[in-house]
Amino acid sequence: MALFGGIEAGGTKFVCAVGTGPDDVRAVTRFPTTTPAETIGRVIEFFRSQPEPMTAIGIGAFGPTDPDPASPTYGTITSTPKPGWQNTPLRKLVADALGVPVAFDTDVNAAALGEYTWGAARGIDTFIYLTVGTGIGGGAMVEGRMLHGLVHPEMGHIRVPHDWAVDPFPGFCPYHGDCLEGLAAGPALERRWGTRAETLPPDHPAWPLEAEYLAQALVSYILILSPKRIVIGGGVMHQPALFPLVRTRVKELLAGYVQSPAILEGIDTYIVPPALGDRAGVLGAIALAQGQR
Amino acid sequence: MALFGGIEAGGTKFVCAVGTGPDDVRAVTRFPTTTPAETIGRVIEFFRSQPEPMTAIGIGAFGPTDPDPASPTYGTITSTPKPGWQNTPLRKLVADALGVPVAFDTDVNAAALGEYTWGAARGIDTFIYLTVGTGIGGGAMVEGRMLHGLVHPEMGHIRVPHDWAVDPFPGFCPYHGDCLEGLAAGPALERRWGTRAETLPPDHPAWPLEAEYLAQALVSYILILSPKRIVIGGGVMHQPALFPLVRTRVKELLAGYVQSPAILEGIDTYIVPPALGDRAGVLGAIALAQGQR
Ligand SMILES: Nc1ncnc2c1ncn2[C@@H]1O[C@H](COP(=O)(O)OP(=O)(O)O)[C@@H](O)[C@H]1O
Ligand SMILES: Nc1ncnc2c1ncn2[C@@H]1O[C@H](COP(=O)(O)OP(=O)(O)O)[C@@H](O)[C@H]1O
Ligand SMILES: [Zn+2]
Ligand SMILES: [Zn+2]
């Protein structure tokens, strides 16, 4: 039976797995992202050490990347600020070393595909997968196809209303200051409140403010992309108070406008956590390998 | 040879045409949108009076609508504020009266399809068509398919940064006040400056402000949907000063972030007017009839 490899290539850590799906993961490894040579070396070593050969490998990678299969630089990490990683032909290096077909997409598109194949977006042809962690990023499937477009979405960097009187924190995005990521990713919470996000209690004022920013962004996504469901993963969403606050605020902001029962009556199944949890990324990479799309 | 009918069903006027494409339009009529009975009566009369029968008809309609072919209310104008038109089964009424297949989509999706088939988006599988007129609305094709999703996009109603010190006009959107449409559609210009938009000269301060709002919205569209081109039609875009101002501002706002040559070097072919001009809507309806999708 065909066996697949998945690589979740993150800016802070890599996760590699071998298997055929969530109930059949035969091996997993994770290690920090250091230099390209060292990191990719460990990836190759892991897959070479497996008892059985892989039919194909999938990579979901941090970016910006070139995820266009028709491009000469398909599968390259392009203009990332991460030192040493600019213009790293990640896909090519893995494919050449292991001699198998390697599919490539953004980390969030891979996670979206994982949730579509086995998780919270099964059977839903138009949806968004968002991660709120060290950064904020989103992937989307539209009418059954992964959205790539010109480059790939960068929906974590949209502007959201920022009331400086309420929140004087200037945002930490090196490109935009107070874009969504700048105001609402994990490091924004840490700098604004002086403590890591996981230490903030559920009744801390950090959470209604966080929910406001996320809800404002979700409303823009809903008005522009009309998703049938929104799956939100990432470390910051582990705060249990957050989902209910975000759902309530999205409904308020949309009320009377997008009159869909999915939102007005079904918000609890409209904005949901990933069913695959923190494995969405690496399992999505396996799904990518299986689909070879 | 197969002959097609197209209906651009707008909130202020209807345009009906018979033909096979932009170079073969055999008959056209336009009339104001009054009651559903009277207006749909004129549509039926027009097609019945044609010398040759139609193979199929397409409708691009104002909304909100139900454009889902699998829904029991496919082709219905749903919760529109336009008096008398709530829950009008437009597609069904036309199909029953004329006895031909009738395809239905939003007005902006139809216009987008027209531009894709014969106009400024030929061969481009992921793009946005935006109209800036009495209202602001957008349609999109993603990876070769018209985007519908949960309902349909309402991208004219996203929020954009509104500096009240610079622009004290509160916006006129009945739902949101100062959303994009509330600040930048034709009626916003008329109320803010006290004169119809077409009378404002090219060097009037109205235009840099208008360009700022449109550019902020386009940047959100680009970050979320990653379109390969943006086509902008509608009455307000007839002001010749506007396209250059919008292009420059989009480039400034994105600079250093979305590093695509299409934007950095090719902005003049990235943000463009419709090649079909004001006929995009009705020709798009004919394309819809031809595709039956
Ligand atoms: N239980 C928690 N509650 C709130 N924030 C958390 C929690 N756990 C982790 N975080 C925050 O999530 C961020 C890391 O997100 P994560 O998705 O795990 O990593 P990455 O985005 O680097 O892949 C950090 O900023 C951390 O403070
Ligand atoms: N040459 C022009 N310059 C600027 N604005 C214009 C011009 N012509 C029409 N408009 C404005 O465009 C709006 C009508 O847009 P249009 O696309 O023609 O109609 P609709 O959106 O109702 O289909 C009006 O608000 C009008 O003031
Ligand atoms: Zn940013
Ligand atoms: Zn509005």
Automatic annotation (TrEMBL), chains A, B:
Keyword Signal: no
E.C. numbers: 2.7.1.4
Gene Ontology MF, one: fructokinase activity
Keywords linked to the UniProt accession: Magnesium, Metal-binding, Transferase, Zinc
Organism: Symbiobacterium terraclitae
Family named by the database record: Belongs to the ROK (NagC/XylR) family.
Pfam families found in the cross-reference section: ROK
Keyword Magnesium: yes
Name of protein: fructokinase
Cofactors demanded by this protein: Mg(2+)
Catalyzed reactions: D-fructose + ATP = D-fructose 6-phosphate + ADP + H(+)
